[in-house]
Amino acid sequence: MGYKEDVQERALIARIRKLAGQHGGRLRVSIGDDCAVWKPDPGLETVITTDQLVEGVHYLSGSPGRALGARLVGRGLSDIAAMGGDPRLAFLNVAWPATLPERWCLDFLHGFATEARRWKTAWAGGDVSSVAGPSVASITMIGETPKGGALLRSGARAGDLIYVSGKLGARPRKITPRLALGKALRGVATACMDLSDGLSTDLHHLCDESGVGAVIEAKRIPAAGKSLHHALNWGEDYELLFTARVSTRVEARIASVPITCIGRCTRRGVLIEDAAGHRAPMEPRGWEHFS
Amino acid sequence: MGYKEDVQERALIARIRKLAGQHGGRLRVSIGDDCAVWKPDPGLETVITTDQLVEGVHYLSGSPGRALGARLVGRGLSDIAAMGGDPRLAFLNVAWPATLPERWCLDFLHGFATEARRWKTAWAGGDVSSVAGPSVASITMIGETPKGGALLRSGARAGDLIYVSGKLGARPRKITPRLALGKALRGVATACMDLSDGLSTDLHHLCDESGVGAVIEAKRIPAAGKSLHHALNWGEDYELLFTARVSTRVEARIASVPITCIGRCTRRGVLIEDAAGHRAPMEPRGWEHFS
Questions:
Q1: Nearest CA of chain B to the CA of A101: how many Å?
Q2: Is residue B13 very low, low, confident or very high in pLDDT (cuts 50, 70, 90)?
């Protein structure tokens, strides 16, 4: 089964080790052992997320490797941001077909390494395998938040106002994880999540976890273009969706990101109100995952 | 791109959530949020490993789902055991083709959940995607070891004796992770790793990380069958390979597992000595990964 003494795989692993760099500080052991060894800060809690990029599902075959490697890191970072966390460690598993050009693989790894380093995240391990089909890349990202300080999806209450950061529906080529914003929302937001599947779907997730409903005003949604459909359903915004008590002052810009109030939490139902004041159920038309 | 509002995916996620069970204790938040939230024990260190099972590479198409789900957990647990750790959390990412029978997927998830629970490991999250090709499943496992107490690959010194647990080359259908043995080796072993790629390859990894050589006596290798080749190169033993000082007393059974001394560390070269006393380089003929 599989590759034995595969020279290309060996070379790849050597490159990964070089790209990942030295361990140090609280990362006591990194690539090269059975596990990474991490010394957690006793005053903090650990937050962990995993995500995937699958060829033909999340991107088209032939997309540039470097951008995809960076994108996978960005998706992990966006989840850490949504918890109000600081990213610490990243792990990368890849299943790559032997037909994939070596240059593409190295570009992907470079993109991954560069984006992780940019956000002060140590590449601490992973796994390489072959596959006779589409490429699958999987990230695990580990971060830290103050004890009891993580921003959860479950803290919204009826009456809370609903906010989003940035503009929706633009499908940016590059993810700018809202890490500074997430940290600034500690103690401000009652619930928070990142917008990866599209507002129409993600708001349902937040409402489900909090046991509330919502009414969104269509005219308030900060759509990047003219299409409300794109802003609601396209997904891959990587902005933050959060709630706060009516009595909490929420600035129009936080950590240099524009913040827009788009509606309010109710007791049940997730509705969208048009310019004429008509309300209709907001159908979740974005992506579905479990995180 | 991909599945939107895919009913089958939704149902799968609901099943996963049910299978994974409630969070609690130090796992403050689990499936359903952007990240899991974990309260690390301030007296311990965190160990983290990732691994993959790829259809057509690690198993044949049509292999039973339940055994594979359990196997993926077993592989993660074996890495935690090799560090002398206690397993705590497991995360599962899957990329599954739509052609895969739902029954198979549920079996896989059941196998994963049951094996995790058996070893007191909480299923804390993951991701589900479709793929137009072979199945890829990826695990992240998080464990804990005493501060500075993790068994590393890098601690062997020339003169140390080399040991393996159990029998090699049997390719057991079911992985029995050597968790109790790993913990018993804290303060005993100078270096340790699990045998997943085959002794001939794994011993090179240990020697590389420790900066030592080794001489193995072929006649001492506890082969499960008559074939030395299988014992050296088949891999997937999930036994522990470890070293200890000559002055350290190592019992013939530890945590109910037979322990065999197979050789000793030298300054350089990885050699195997046949019954007649002839030494030859031990070629790494097992699997290659990076961990």
A1: 19
A2: confident
Q: Spell out which residues of chain A touch residue B289, defining contact as CB-CB under 8 Å.
A: 9, 13, 127-129
Give pLDDT, residue A6.
58
Q: Is the pLDDT of residue A291 over 70?
A: no
Nearest residue of B to residue A43, measured between CA atoms: B42
B39 near A CB under 8 A: yes
Q: Say if B130 is an interface residue toward chain A (CB within 8 Å).
A: yes
The reply to whether residue B194 touches residue A34, judged by beta carbons under 8 angstroms, is: yes
Contact B4 A48 (CB under 8 A): no
Average pLDDT over residues B194-202: 94
* Range with lowest mean pLDDT among A218-227, B7-16, B246-255: B7-16
| Residue A47 · residue A143 · CB < 8 Å | yes
List the structure tokens of A27. Answer: 């990362």
Interface A-B: count of C-beta contacts within 8 A: 291
Best mutation target among B5, B33, B240 (most A Cβ atoms within 10 Å) is B33
Share of chain B above pLDDT 70, in %: 96
Inform me whether the C-beta atom of residue A169 falls under 8 Å from chain B C-beta atoms.
no
pLDDT of residue B21: 82
Q: What is the four-CA torsion angle of A181, A288, A286, A153, rounded to 10 degrees?
A: -30
With contacts defined as CB-CB under 8 Å, which chain B residues touch A95? 52, 54, 57, 136
Q: What is the mean pLDDT of residues A175-196?
A: 97
Question: Which chain A residues touch B72 with a CB distance below 8 Å?
Answer: none
Tell me whether B91 touches chain A (CB under 8 Å): yes
Average pLDDT estimate for B95-117: 95
The better pLDDT of the pair A225, A241 is held by A241
Name every chain B residue with its beta carbon within 8 A of the beta carbon of A85.
Answer: 35
pLDDT value for B12: 84
Residue-range domains of chain B with CATH: 7-146 (3.30.1330.10), 161-281 (3.90.650.10)
